[in-house]
Amino acid sequence: MWVAVNKPLFSLCVVLLFNLAYHGYAESCPEDIRASEWGREAVFTKGRLAFQSLAGVLHSPVLINRHWHDINYYQANARLGVMLTDRKGRKHFPGGNTEGIIEFTYSDVLEDGGDFISGITCLLRCNFVSPHSKLFPYIQAGAGVVYNDIYKDRSQSLVGQSIEFTLRGGAGARFLVADNWSIDVEGTFEHISCAGMSDRNGGINAGGAFIGFTRYFL
Fold this sequence. Notes:
This protein is mainly beta.
């Protein structure tokens, strides 16, 4: 078990070191585009980039097919986001913007019958941005593909092939601890199935919670 959990933890450490390597980026930016000059919501300006890293545990089944085989897994996510729009809203009331995200995931399966799930997902996120706030809630949804080895276990009827499709949705919040860093929490629901391309297509319906951080490139 320790070896299984340690792999995604090692991945997160690599991601953290990658972000720290870019720590001087904000200091090298011209003063007129610093978040400290525009207010913290400047990180949600169109064209800004954000790198988010999260880790957590998902439990399946939830809500649907509750009598089916348990497939629980530890998941590490790395996301690259770009702000697609500027913040819209009145000066003294909450506004928001949209963010496009490419997500890479790796999961260690915590039950017998499989070892991993990995994949790529495209997400669309709506950020809720209040002027001069440190807390920024968001909601998101998206779709993608995953590769797994669970299908090799013929005793389960949820996953029938190595390549499956995934639908993801969730909500979270980012709390800025600096102009270009935030601590993040998120709740996620994930569905994995092959859209009827295999005779085993019960699907995984998993829910869980994540914690992590975001590095903003201002």
